[in-house]
Design goal:
14 helices; globular; four-stranded mixed sheet; ten-stranded mixed sheet
Length: 495
């Protein structure tokens, strides 16, 4: 492979064919590059297939369509997480690079979150420009199949990849994108031997699942896991098939053959019905979950990074201080939360010790309301405790892991959110200008905000480049070990 560089319309020759990008702020940018065949027609709910390629130069100056998804009209936290155009033909990626040369820069692959039902690589929030420019990195982000198109499971409980009709096709998409990176990123100035996969929420869970295919670090050597819901296990095949049966009933189809004939807008519309059917008070639920199918996912994702194929991968992992305020702090169903409701919820995890646990959480937050106890309890249950347990297990095995807590609170919504799920994202990318639509950033002191963002952003760059997040403008961040249990806390100065 080679390339011909033009200062306004750079061209790179990929294995599928030539692509023409654009120069933006001294970065060469390529958008909407296909990394797999369009998953349409007979390829709906099939594993990602190789693209046939093209002979003419492909225009890669505009983002490709996002995976079909529900658009939330009013979002009091993010202000939205995905916008049209949508299309089933969505398997494209985007590349930002400081130079089309042989510099072999470290590569950052970002996988967006969104509970496997929303998000897109086309969102300005996830643009790779800040990392590429500030870190001299090659940055890739991608679209992958979401919701019913990416996560419905039709295989028999003992089905294998050759005869399975769905399941983790979203994961086959992401694997195809990583293989594209291995095959092509050198032509974009990147080093295929120095790849970091990073993601937040469902994107972080994706990274842990991808580690099951890491091949001893051949696909990627580092992982950044932001707010990874390790307490949400993958569904068993039986559970996934039951969820699919519920979905078929909502759509009004008897089997996958009938479902193939349903237009994608109707498939996405039915997601709302499944979401309503699976909602449970005090629990953070999602209508679709990946399945432990024994093929694409042979084990629970966390095990991939402990004793599985990804055990040698360097890991940076952490959580936000009040993760679940994202769901519970502003929801109508929680506006009048009572102590009795939270106690009932606490029994799910503490059994007969629920009252004692409630008292401990209440004492830890003087003046806190019952909903605040619910937020703290569920943040611990879903995120903090399993993350700490993972760090402990990695440390016990002598595997490198850096742990952090993002605890910078937002004053938005009268301070009720604290540091919610997703609040770390604009700090990590250091791109607040692209988040102007997000209500959860309102009222922040910009000096404190921007100073912390520079620290966090540079730590992520350092980790991608070297496997160590330390840089001169921050306190020493030690690896997590069983003696010190060092955890970096990103919060308000002096707090």
């Amino acid at each position: 492979m080679g390339f011909a560089q033009d200062r306004t319309a750079p061209v790179v020759h990929t294995r599928s064919g030539p692509v023409r990008g654009v120069v933006e702020d001294d970065l060469a940018v390529f958008k909407g590059v296909p990394y797999a065949a369009p998953p349409v027609g007979p390829l709906r709910w099939r594993p990602a297939q190789p693209h046939r390629g093209w002979s003419d130069t492909l225009d890669a100056t505009a983002y490709g369509p996002s995976s079909p998804q529900i658009v939330r009209e009013v979002d009091p936290i993010l202000g939205g997480h995905g916008s049209p155009p949508f299309d089933e033909d969505c398997l494209t990626l985007n590349v930002w690079t400081p130079g089309l040369d042989d510099a072999r820069r470290p590569v950052l692959v970002w996988i967006h979150g969104g509970a496997f039902i929303s998000g897109s690589g086309a969102m300005p929030n996830y643009s790779g420009e800040t990392f590429a420019r500030d870190g001299d990195l090659v940055v890739v982000n991608l679209n992958y199949r979401l919701g019913p198109l990416g996560l419905l499971h039709f295989a028999s409980e003992d089905g294998i990849e050759g005869d399975a009709e769905g399941g983790n096709v979203w994961l086959t998409d992401q694997l195809a994108a990583l293989r594209w990176v291995q095959d092509n990123i050198a032509a974009f100035g990147g080093d295929p031997g120095n790849v970091t996969v990073a993601g937040q929420s469902a994107g972080a869970l994706s990274a842990t699942a991808l580690a099951g295919h890491a091949g001893g670090g051949r696909l990627f050597r580092r992982a950044i896991l932001q707010s990874v819901p390790l307490a949400m296990p993958l569904a068993t095949p039986a559970q996934a098939l039951a969820r699919t049966a519920d979905y078929l009933e909502i759509v009004g189809a008897k089997d996958v053959d009938e479902l193939r004939a349903v237009p994608w807008p109707r498939l996405v519309e039915a997601t709302a019905g499944l979401l309503a059917a699976t909602t449970e008070w005090g629990h953070w639920t999602t209508p679709f979950m990946p399945v432990l199918d024994g093929v694409t996912a042979a084990r629970q994702p966390v095990e991939n990074l402990l004793d599985g194929p990804g055990a040698a991968i360097d890991v940076l992992i952490g959580w936000t201080g009040e993760e679940t305020s994202f769901v519970f702090a502003l929801g109508e169903a929680y506006a009048s939360t009572t102590r009795e409701q939270v106690l009932r919820r606490a029994r799910d995890g503490f059994g007969d010790g629920a009252a004692e646990a409630y008292a401990a959480y209440e004492a830890a937050r003087p003046g806190g309301r019952p909903v605040d106890v619910l937020i703290d309890l569920t943040t611990d249950e879903l995120f903090r405790k399993p993350t700490v347990a993972f760090a402990e297990a990695r440390a016990a095995r002598g595997r490198p892991v850096w742990a952090y807590e993002f605890a910078f609170p937002t004053p938005a919504h009268d301070g009720r959110l604290g540091a919610p799920h997703c609040l770390d994202l604009p700090f990590v990318f250091d791109n607040f200008d692209t988040w102007s639509h997000a209500p959860f950033l309102a009222g922040m002191d910009t000096r404190s905000r921007d100073g912390l963002a520079r620290t966090v952003h540079r730590a992520w760059i350092s980790f991608v480049r070297t496997g160590d997040p330390n840089h001169p403008a921050m306190p020493r961040w030690e690896r997590y070990d069983l003696r010190s249990r060092a955890t970096m806390r990103f919060g308000v100065a002096g707090a």
